[in-house]
Amino acid sequence: MVLTVIEDFNGARDDSSPQRRLAEVRERAQGFRQRMLELAPVTYMRSFKLVRVPYPTRYAFRDAFSLPTPYLHIVNRLFVVQFSTTEGVKTLLVSPSDIEGNAATPFFARIAQALPKPLQGVGQSVLAPIVATVEECLGHIGLSPADVDYVTYDHLHTQDLRKWLGTDKAPGYFPNAKLLVMRQEWESALGLLPTQADWYCPGGLDVDPERVILLDGDTMLGESVAIIHTPGHTEGNQSIVTHTDEGLFVTSENGVGPDSYAPERSQIPGLARYARTLGAEVVLNGNTLEGSVDQYISMVAEKTIAGPSKRNPDFPNVLCSSEFEAYWLFPGVSPTFGVGDVCFGRLQSRARV
Predict the structure, then answer these.
(1) Cα torsion at 239, 207, 44, 90 (round to 10°)?
(2) Residue 196 near residue 158, CB atoms below 8 Å
(3) CB-based contacts of 151: which residues, under 8 Å, 6+ apart?
(4) Which of 27, 38, 260, 295 has the fewest Cβ atoms within 10 angstroms?
(5) Closest by alpha carbon to 165, among 77, 99, 98, 102?
(6) Model confidence over 122-133: pLDDT tens digits?
(7) Alpha carbon of residue 115 to chain centroid
(8) Does any domain span residue 70?
(9) Are the C-beta atoms of 245 and 344 separated by less than 8 Å?
(10) 133-179 per-position pLDDT tens digit
(11) Domain assignment of residue 351, yes or no
């Protein structure tokens, strides 16, 4: 079996008290973590940098960041994951970004004009440099487009899916792939309010509905990968939990890096003080603030499931889909710790076989 329902978190958010909801979700997350660690790790996982994107610090760290630096850089990554099932090894792509198509997202279409005057007119090669395309990454490891069974994203901000899944006018790059997405995320994205629409690519979801698998809750992929509903950044936000040789990696964009999940240990100006003053466990990535209470609870769940990083035990094993990295253009702000790229296991390709 490829997809199975997970019931570990059913009803965990039903209580009217946010404190009790948080306590219940934390306890469930601890149990879920132990259960996943007893299962087999993925056959293969590798990440690739795609593009560096300027992002307002006021969104990335909300009220916690204390310097006047207006922007930082987040790095969009592609994750190639293979996992075993009763139907054989399946290939999942997490966050395959169509860099050209995504650029039509209203917020990023305006960002050059919104930057301070000294940065006006700076070309993409400096402001938002492309490291690699999805096609180049897959070609580098010898993975055929026909090998891809599923694609997924932690949420659908900025995503143009037409290139990958096709339209009624043109076939998609991945002929066999289907999208795995929470029903809430999909239906929200088809009926956006103005504050939401600024972050979604116009027409980006105009794909054949037969290529879309709507998830009504937490779902296990084989024995090694789980998709957990973690609302907050968007109503249908989801986290991808991957069991690897380095433990459980949790991927989402509720936060922009490990500092967001352990602000008390952060050296980013303002974050530790913010954590001490409020007693806050996490710092939200909040551009749309669709559900800040849910997002806080979701981030605690994510870092509880992840557990401590083997690369730096002071921070949880959270591997954000858009991870904050230092960049010379935006001085004064750099992560205390970043996971960077990962590679585990050995790729299997049906095309080669």
Answers:
(1) 110
(2) no
(3) 92, 93, 94, 96, 161, 164, 165, 174, 177, 178, 179, 180
(4) 38
(5) 98
(6) 566 778 899 999
(7) 25
(8) yes
(9) yes
(10) 999 999 999 999 999 999 999 999 999 999 999 998 889 999 999 99
(11) no
